[in-house]
Amino acid sequence: MAAHWFDELTKEYAEALAVSPIKVRLIAHTARPFDIAAASARTCYSSKGLLTPDDMHKSEKSLELRKKVARATLKSGHHTTRQHAQFVFGLENVSRQLIWQILHAHPYYNSEQVSQRYVPIKADRTWYTLPRTLAGNAAVHALHERAFATYSQLITELTPVVEEIFFSIHRLKARNREDHADAIKKRCMEVARYIMPVSTVAYLYHSISALTLMRYARMLLWSRSEEFVVLGIHMLRIVREIDADLFEEMPEPLAAPERSIDAAAAKKNNAAFDALLTGKSARLVSSSVDALTQSGGIFPSAAAALDTQLNPLLGDVFYPGTLDETTRLLNHAHFTFQKKLSHTADSQEQRHRTLPGNRPHLAAQVSLEDDYITPRLIHESERAAATYRNYLSENFALLRSLWQNEALPREDLTYILPNAFPVRFMESGDFYNFYHKWKSRLCYNAQEEIFYSAHAEVSEIKSRFPEIGQYIGPPCVVREHLKPRCPEGDHFCGIKVWQVPFENYARVI
After folding, report:
1. Using CA atoms, how far apart are residues 494 and 215, in angstroms rounded to an integer?
2. What pLDDT digit, counting tens, does each position of 366-416 carry?
3. Do 471 and 328 have their domain in common?
4. Residue 91, SS3?
5. How many angstroms separate the CA atoms of 293 and 301, rounded?
6. Could you list the residue range(s) of the whole structural domain that residue 399 is in?
């Protein structure tokens, strides 16, 4: 059955596969994944000790049990045995939209992708990808050419402003200004990328288990993303070559659900959402901290868990507190925040996978207005601000024009949205994982928009729960009793943040 649906799907998407720039290679994988799944399942009930993949082929009976146990665990939903096998894929020419909407929208993966903050986008290779419905549209391609030109223009226009701010902070470095040109350019690129469409491609390492690959197969059609189907076919084709038995377990895709995508409704809902935020990027809407203080003396106090003088694990760069009884006390307090971040900033925010967010089906948030986030650095240059506004006005004008064509799938039109497009969502999690995020994102080296979002969140915690809020801050603050105080080394931001009152935190670059 698995082979049947896969072959039919491959035929259906033959044209898309032929024109897609996506490249998939298998960098590494666990040997004999199906045998490992069967052996681990049988080990659970083995009186003979640990069973190995070789044991699955010892006899006719072993081979029969191998298939029987695999079928039984698959059918009953006991799928943890499929997590032992790992696949490390090398992906190229995958859009930022697909990465955000699917590949990084769940917790069971690991990725290392090219950074738009630190690696320049280059027009000397394929730098964007489009659904077939837009690939032949001259206006869409012209917009992408304009986007790249604007990206380059913004880097040039922001350079004098960034130089002035950078050398006002790092005064000694001004003696050798040319040595820091790369650092200056990276800060300009970080902001210039906001105007780039989410069709911009990336290359990345993407590691998943066999179980996650099964989930990908099950959801291939769910999001109505042709790009995801193409990527999935490439991945499954590779797995079929290395382990036919595992491939046969891949579930048939579910049909895509009906979705209501109404720009007028999106406009109303977005306005209501933004009104609750009152101009902030994050608002605390729910919390539970009683468990930190109501342990009846069985567990240590919250102070014992949060004071780095008593609990140095909080400042440890290896994040080992999940293995410590005291630190785990922080798992029992929970927070839910209402959030609004640009697509590009949220692409970094969602990497905090232990803090799940209900990120939207993006087309459902398109209101057809000029709806975007503006980084603070843009406001420091009148020329850059005008360039930024003019391009984004053109971007949304084309979106409105294309939206009138009802034959164009709304999901496909999201590919021309800029990185600056705001994502509105809710995010929840326990205190320990929020603490880890806040510690890293309150660093002055963190991306500016996420820095201020983290600051908005922590400001509410400090206001409502000062007994725990006093312990939250960037690494140089929480590492008061550790050496070195700043773990960034040569990347020290240049400001003694531990001497700055939290309410006075401010930065542009």
Report:
1. 45
2. 999 999 999 999 999 999 999 999 999 999 999 999 999 999 999 999 999
3. yes
4. strand
5. 7
6. 132-198+376-416
